[in-house]
Amino acid sequence: MKQKIKAVLKFIFKTFLVIFALACILLIYFNIPVLNENTDAKLGITFSKRYAEDIGLDWRAVYLATMDDLGARKIRIPVYWDWVEPQLGQYDFKDLDWQVQEAQERNAELILVVGQKVPRWPECFIPEYLKNDDAKRKTELVDFVRVVVSRYKNSSAVKYWQIENEPFLKFGVCPDLDTNLLDSEIAVARQTDPSRKIIITDSGELSLWRQAISRADIFGTTMYRTIYSAKYGGFYTYPIGPRFFQFKYWMNQIFTKNDNAIVIELQAEPWIAGWTTNQPLDKQFESMNAQKLQANVSFARQVGFPEIYLWGAEWWYWLKFGNNHPEVWDAAKVMFQSQ
Predict the structure, then answer these.
(1) How many helices and strands, by DSSP H and E, does the chain display?
(2) Which 8-state DSSP code applies to residue 130?
(3) DSSP states of 233-284 as a string?
(4) Domains in the chain: how many in total?
(5) Do 135 and 23 belong to one domain?
(6) Would you place residue 10 in the very low, low, confident or very high pLDDT band (cuts 50, 70, 90)?
(7) In principle, which of 118, 154, 189, 324 could form an S-S bond with 113, CB 3.0–4.6 Å?
(8) pLDDT given at position 257
(9) Is residue 230 included in any domain, yes or no?
């Protein structure tokens, strides 16, 4: 009996050593420098009317400035369900119509993000009248996707549909994931507009991607390099380089045959404790500044994906036009206008 126990313990120890060695090899590989950047990668932004208003800005002025001053021509816009359908069956598309029209006049390309979980905290934006009726919420959500896609499928500005935002990441104030519901949303978008591709997104660092990639025409990864974590005592930088994303995408390609991936959300605003703009400026700049922005874009270009959507244009505007700090906005402007 003792010999058997000893043999089992020896096997477990050897297995642990092999796993540990493989993990170390992968970590070393992930951090081998990438010498080439995809300088042809096109930059875009995510724009949130909701967030612009939350930090006290004139959202229309911010939106126009991103196109007319910054020079962005690829814009991802969340469609907030609770705002667009404030009462069951009653829709208010006025502000979204305006955004689509302004983009169309400037030959800009839009990704419209449709679903219950779309960008910005608290992540899910379910109308109040549906929050206590789970079955009704699911039925109405699929219908909402159909209504939005139907309305904008003839717009020359709309390039892609994104269905939900990081649906497989448990984050935000959201109902539990229902994959059948997600598949129904994707199906109704495809049926309503067969001409456009569907984007499905996932966390770059915290997810395996397989479930998102297998459903997507185009897969979108987020990319956050430095985060704030009370658990780790402050700022924490992920110990991975661009090869981490290349390797993970290659592994998923083997099983899904998906050859279309973009960076849907690149960190370009602070990730700090509490509400960003309520923190002192020096604390905000500790997390994000013009130099970090440029470094993050360089990092994303080393990954090699053809499009990179930056996260935080509203904050750049808030800094420049409300706080006399144009550095981040101006650095972004140089990058956008040199494309």
Answers:
(1) 13, 10
(2) G
(3) TEEEE-S--HHHHHHHHHHHHHHH----EEEEEEE-S---SS-GGGS-HHHH
(4) 2
(5) no
(6) low
(7) 118
(8) 83
(9) yes
Residue 247, in any domain of the structure: yes
Q: Are 267 and 204 within 8 A, CB to CB?
A: no
* pLDDT value at residue 230: 74
| Six-digit token string for 258 | 């998906």
The pTM of this model reads: 0.94
Q: If pLDDT is split at 50, 70 and 90, which confidence band does 1 have?
A: low
Picking from 276, 272, 249, the residue whose alpha carbon sits closest to that of residue 260 is 249
- CATH number for the domain harbouring residue 100: 3.20.20.80
Is residue 240 one of the residues assigned to a domain? yes
Domain shared by 25 and 46, yes or no: no
Q: What is the mean pLDDT of residues 35-50?
A: 96
Rounded to whole angstroms, how far apart are CA atoms 179 and 167? Answer: 9
CA atoms of 169 and 119, how far apart (whole Å): 13
142-185 pLDDT per residue, tens: 999 999 999 999 999 999 999 999 999 999 999 999 999 999 99
CB 138 within 8 A of CB 181: yes
- Which candidate, 48, 46, 103, 45, places its Cα nearest to that of 80? 48
SS3 119: coil
Strands 234-237 vs 226-229: parallel, antiparallel or unpaired: antiparallel
pLDDT of res. 33: 81
Tell me: do 62 and 128 sit in the same domain: yes
* Same domain for 94 and 234: yes
- Domain with 225 in it: 42-337
37 lies in a domain? no
How far is Cα 284 from Cα 312, in angstroms, rounded to an integer?
A: 12
